[in-house]
Design a protein that fits this description.
This protein has helices spanning 2-12, 38-44, and strands spanning 30-36, 54-64, 71-77, 80-85, 89-93, 104-108, 123-128, 135-139, 144-148, 155-159, 172-177, 183-192, 195-204, 215-220, 226-232, 238-246, 249-257, 267-268, 271-276, 285-292, 298-304, 316-322. By secondary structure, the chain is mainly beta. It has one domain (2-322): Neuraminidase.
């Protein structure tokens, strides 16, 4: 992630590749809001295509401070969406596709200056422990998972020695808790030097505990994409979100595999379900969760990380619908 941010910064300094005009300087903290962008897309008469899922909603997070846009993990808890960010931030918000105003609340997982303290702050994935409501958060720059109580008042560090073998800026990027009780964690970095598609994954038999020894598997991503989120669909299938970055910007894929394929020593090659490369909706998507809709369809929700570069990137919330 740090390498990506450095590349983005270098790219942003080259005048010929500016994609958006810098926003006027505004030091006032404005209220957070999710602004509907779908209406403008519908007026064009030509919606972006994403593959099997249909684009049915897109919103942009506006207002707040830069920290509110550095979102890398997305899940659900008590009927709300929960997103965690790179600077210790946590955002809770109501689904914006429901009637009424989508209330947004911003808090802190780590309420300290991230530049000056030893605690990890670069949160990459979050899952909710269903029995307790606790949040399990993986960090790209720490050999541990942090467990937060539902009210965030208590924090427990769960050492994961296996993380120490992963590069600091390419560590535990994707995590999911399966309905069968297992917890999966996947590294952003490559599992082999000469293979730019394989990524190492860990399988915990339950909620990760100190001293637990996970078994390993490998995930083969589509060429050019790194895994950045996992989510299990209501029908049981697993989704992996992949991200690619180049001089033309970001591209994303969503690929699908079965949880039964996740076994010790296995190499999983998921099938691509969706691609996001239309520049109107392309962004640095890092968070993903799935909901069951009233009509029986399933909706895939994606959230993007603006990397605090609000003058060049956006924090977008995307809703894709899979027909029943």
């Amino acid at each position: 992630m740090r390498a990506l941010k450095l590349a983005l910064l270098i790219l942003a300094l080259v005048p010929t590749v500016w994609l958006r005009r810098p926003a006027p300087r505004d030091t006032a903290v404005r209220p957070l809001a999710l602004v509907d962008l779908m209406s403008a897309l519908l007026r064009t008469g030509l919606l972006p295509t994403t593959g099997a899922p249909e684009l049915v909603g897109i919103w942009q997070l506006s207002g707040g401070l830069p920290d509110s846009g550095t979102l890398s993990g997305l899940t659900q808890s008590d009927g709300e969406m929960v997103a965690v960010g790179d600077r210790g931030a946590i955002l809770r918000f109501a689904r914006p596709d429901q009637p009424g105003v989508a209330a947004i609340r911003m808090g802190k997982l780590i309420d300290l200056d991230w530049r000056k303290h030893p605690h990890p702050t670069d949160a990459e994935a979050v899952v909710v422990e269903p029995e307790t409501g606790d949040l399990l958060v993986s960090y790209e720059d720490a050999p541990a998972i942090l467990r937060f109580s539902a009210d965030l008042a208590n924090r427990t560090r769960i050492p994961v020695p296996a993380f120490a073998a992963w590069p600091d800026n390419q560590g535990a990027e994707a995590m999911a808790r399966l309905t069968d009780g297992r917890t999966l964690v996947i590294a952003e970095g490559y599992a082999k030097w000469l293979d730019r598609t394989l990524h190492e994954g860990l399988i915990f038999s339950g909620v990760p505990q100190a001293g637990a020894v996970p078994v390993r598997f490998k995930l083969r991503m589509p060429a050019g994409y790194r895994p950045c989120e996992l989510a299990q669909m209501p029908d049981g299938r697993m989704l992996v979100l992949g991200r690619s970055f180049s001089l033309v910007g970001f591209r994303s894929v969503i690929a699908v595999f079965t949880p039964e394929a996740v076994q010790a020593g296995a190499t999983i090659s998921p099938q691509v379900l969706a691609q996001i490369d239309d520049p109107r909706i392309s962004e640095n998507y890092e968070g993903m969760t799935v909901t069951r809709e009233p009509d029986g369809s399933q909706a895939i929700w994606l959230i993007s990380d603006s990397n605090q570069m609000v003058w060049a990137q956006r924090t977008l919330l995307l809703k894709l619908r899979l027909k029943p």
